[in-house]
Amino acid sequence: MPLLSIVRFLTALLSLALVVLTIYLVWSWNEGELVRQADGDLVRVREDWRLWLALALGAFSLLGKLVLVPLLAKPDKGEHSREDRGNGQVRQHANGASVYVEELGLNNSPTLILTHGWAMDSSIWHYAKQSLANSFRLIVWDLPGLGRSKGEISLESFASNLETLIEECSTQKVVLVGHSIGGMTIQTLARDNPALFANRVAGVVLLNTTYTNPLKTMILPGFMQAIRWPLLEPLMRVAILLQPLVWLSAWQSYFSGMAHLGNRLGFGKFVTRSQLNHVTLLAAKNPPGNVQKGNLAMFRWDATGALAGTGVPILLLAGELDIVTKPTASADIARHASTASVEFVHGVNHMGMLEQAEQYNSAIAAFARRVTQPTRTI
Q1: What is the C-alpha separation between 120 and 354, in angstroms, rounded?
Q2: 8-state DSSP, 216
Q3: Residue 348 structural domain
Q4: What pLDDT was estimated at residue 169?
Q5: What three-state secondary structure class fits 360?
Q6: Is the residue at 7 inside a domain?
Q7: What is the pLDDT of residues 103-136, one digit of tens each?
Q8: Could you give the dihedral angle defined by the CA atoms of residues 250, 255, 257 and 263, in that order, rounded to the nearest 10 degrees?
Q9: 0.85 surpassed by pTM
């Protein structure tokens, strides 16, 4: 989402500033100061504190995350969030995309298709896979431009690929689950292909998402929209042009822990160390140029009321503390769709599906059982 991309950019600048300061301190220590002795000789005097400070900052630039992560998040208990991959395959779709897809769970059970948030990939569903695969057939996939998928980066392209997955994976109605831009993708499909949506979708679960340009539904919406054209869009386009340098900076920020500091703003009260590191690692691994293309696409997107006339049951789960897509966005979606209900999850932010995974996954499972019983063959 754009807000987290902006924060990551700022923390990357801070991390880069530490590197620049390190280089300056080493240079200034080496240069020293020429002092004339009483006998007339010039002696170069060096201040050793500059060297020691440079060494400390240099070490922090490479190992800072080992210090910062324990300070920013709670110790893990039980299952750790991690970047795991199953026996997936890359499928060629008719729109030219190469889409990485994993199938797991019970083949004869209701099918859930899970679409992840922006700057992430399908490994972010680690908890969901552990919890839901015992009762359902799960399809998880990487959005084009992220993870192992390639293709056009636009909400319309994402929706087209989701449509193909629906048609490929099941002869029965499916349940669509989307987090953040994943929820926006689902709404785009409902907007652009309502007939398929009504015929092939048994229910929709939207996690921490919005219905329009996310600059309008995040914190400080007026300010964020005011700086869109003079600041945000130019910076994002520069990042696309300078992707190799921006990517290098992102990795340096990851190792220094500054990126973890930025991503911490997307979590609430319950974040653990593995969750914070998982999200930060994925944000560093995904091509920054592609991430910025997605942000620009979101600025031009709107699906207000797209779910209103579908007649499909909808469950919205919103983080009480979400600053990236404020919970009022979920309430607005529910207000426009008579088949929708919304639940506000206490103490979580935009990444609530990690922070309170058990609560989210239990709600998804209960909803999926309700809307798929009995399942109907098309």
Answers
A1: 13
A2: G
A3: 1-76+89-378
A4: 87
A5: helix
A6: yes
A7: 999 999 999 999 999 999 999 999 999 999 999 9
A8: 40
A9: yes
